[in-house]
Amino acid sequence: MKIRIGYGLGTNSLTNDQERFTSFVDALEAHRFDSLWVSERISGNSSDPVVAMAFAAARTSKLKFGMSVMVLPGRNPVLVAKSMASLDRLSNGRLLPAFGLGAPNLAEWGAFAVDRKERAPMFDESLSLMRRLWSEDEVDHSGRFYSFEGVRVLPKPIQQPLDVWLGGAAPSELRRVGRMADGWLPSFCTPADVAAGMDTIKQVAAEHGREIDEEHYGALIAYRHGELSPQYVAAARARKPEVDPNDVIPRGFDELRRRIEGFCEAGASKFVLIPVDEPTDWNDELAAVAEALLPMQT
Q1: Strands 98-100, 218-223: parallel, antiparallel or unpaired by DSSP?
Q2: Same domain, 74 and 63
Q3: pLDDT at res. 280
Q4: pLDDT of 129-160, one tens digit each?
Q5: 3-state secondary structure of 240
Q6: Which H or E element spans position 222?
Q7: Are residues 260 and 150 both part of a single domain?
Q8: Cα gap 16→76, rounded to integer Å
Q9: Secondary structure of 49-117 in the HEC alphabet?
Q10: Contact in structure between 286 and 31 (CB atoms under 8 Å)
């Protein structure tokens, strides 16, 4: 397997001004990390993912970039398809698009003006439509949420096909990955979770006559240098009450390396690291991570 290690920013990242984000992006490129992943949360401190990716694309020449994740229900899929195709072309094929249904938060759902029960079917229709727009010359579509005649998205992405990554580990999310995705990137999980999720995804994919590349399984891994704050522990347990966050979030580079090795044994090979507490100096942090972990890239 080709092990690849990228870096991500959380939904409440303070790396959101020109000085810090420029330093972060430049250090990722200089230290030869594989990719940058930016999160979306309207009410969070993180930057808009499309704006952040466009900035990173213009600033770098080798770094790949994606969203972890961009909310799809509530957005016009034709316009999203256009912006993603443009980003892929202008970056010479470095885009890693990843989409989701949105955070389980009433205010966030309200901002996208989509009824909770409509999110999943709207997502499925939107993603299927975007795939057609990226590959077909002209698209006629009549669906539950969208109807178009003779719609064209030009220019097309450089990558053909443009692989789409999905996250999530709930049964419905795993089934969606098997039915629709080209890659899987879950978060807040263990190697055992990934192994079990991969089994489900492969089974569902086979039932739909699909196959996901063995190189397209990974995980987002939060890590820390010190103790977790009570606020973080409370937020994590609210998300997954049955999981002790101290068991999921490795401390220090040695634990982080062992966790990556565990994921590799489970069959994953693509990783996105996210520090629980962002460093004061990104270059120092990324230099240390690169020295400790990037030799694992094969």
Answers
A1: unpaired
A2: no
A3: 95
A4: 999 999 999 999 999 999 999 999 999 999 99
A5: coil
A6: strand 218-223
A7: no
A8: 26
A9: HHHHHHHHHHHCCCCEEEECCEECCCCCHHHHHHHHHHHHHHCCCCEECEEECCCCCHHHHHHCCCCHH
A10: yes
Largest CA distance in the chain: 56
Would you state the structure tokens that stand for residue 255, as one six-digit string? Answer: 């634990």
Q: pLDDT tens-digit profile of 59-114?
A: 999 999 999 999 999 999 999 999 999 999 999 999 999 999 987 777 787 888 99
Per the structure block, which two tokens stand in for 49? 């993912």
Asked if residue 148 lies in contact with residue 118, where contact means CB atoms within 8 angstroms, the answer is: no
User: How many helices (H) and strands (E) in the chain?
Assistant: 11, 12
- Within-domain flag for 91: no
Residues 152 and 199 in one domain: no
- Global confidence as pTM: 0.96
Could you list the residue range(s) of the whole structural domain that residue 246 is in?
Answer: 4-69+167-296
In 3D space, the residue among 121, 126, 124 whose CA is nearest the CA of residue 79 turns out to be 126
Q: How many domains does the chain have?
A: 2
Can you name the residues that pair with 141 across neighbouring β-strands?
148
- Between the alpha carbon of residue 296 and those of residues 1, 5, 115, 188, 256, the distances in Å are 11, 9, 44, 21, 12
Dihedrals phi, psi of 288, to nearest 5 degrees:
-70, -40
CB 37 within 8 Å of CB 67? yes
Band (246; pLDDT cuts 50, 70, 90) = confident
- Under 8 Å between Cβ of 64 and 36: yes
Alpha-carbon gap, residue 124 to 113, rounded angstroms: 17
